Amino acid sequence: xTRIRTGTRGWxxxxxxxxxxSASCAGARAGRSxxxxxxxARLPVAFAWAVDGKDIxxxxxxxxxxxxxxxxxxxxxxxxxxxxxxxxxxxxxxxxVRCSTMVLANFRVEVAxxxxxxxxxxxxxxxDPRGAPPGTRSHTEGRHFYEFVREGxxxxxxxxxxxxxxxxxxxxxxxxxxxxxxxxxxxxTTTPEG
Length: 194
Known about the structure:
The chain has 194 residues and is α+β, with helices and mostly antiparallel strands.
């Protein structure tokens, strides 16, 4: 009997250690998932800053090699690959407005191993869009949907699709636009021109 009890106690200890190790591994996985979600949540914010700053290098650093920039909501085919997305931004997106402001909110992310999905709500203002009278801004509200992939040691945006819900062009008083230009401008209230 003593031998059986010792064996049972041994098994109980072993099961206890196994449960503890399993819980520890699950916690570590949850921690990695939480870390990944936090890293991923920074990508759309960095994307918005890069677009507003017309910083093509910062923008490209956020994208996977085979990124898909889906503009189907605007009647355009998807742009596929970093080189094509770079060209789209340099020749179409950046020169389309004098400057822009993109505000993101309510970001959500779901991580599944080396892949993740996410979404956010956005408000975008583009000042003096090409072809519009001076003192016009475009105002768009909607949602972005993302796919993310881990490349090496970093997460990247693999797909981005916008879903506009509200769009209009509206007048603004140019004298009230306190800053408009490229690059990060901390605390500035003047345009690069003066």
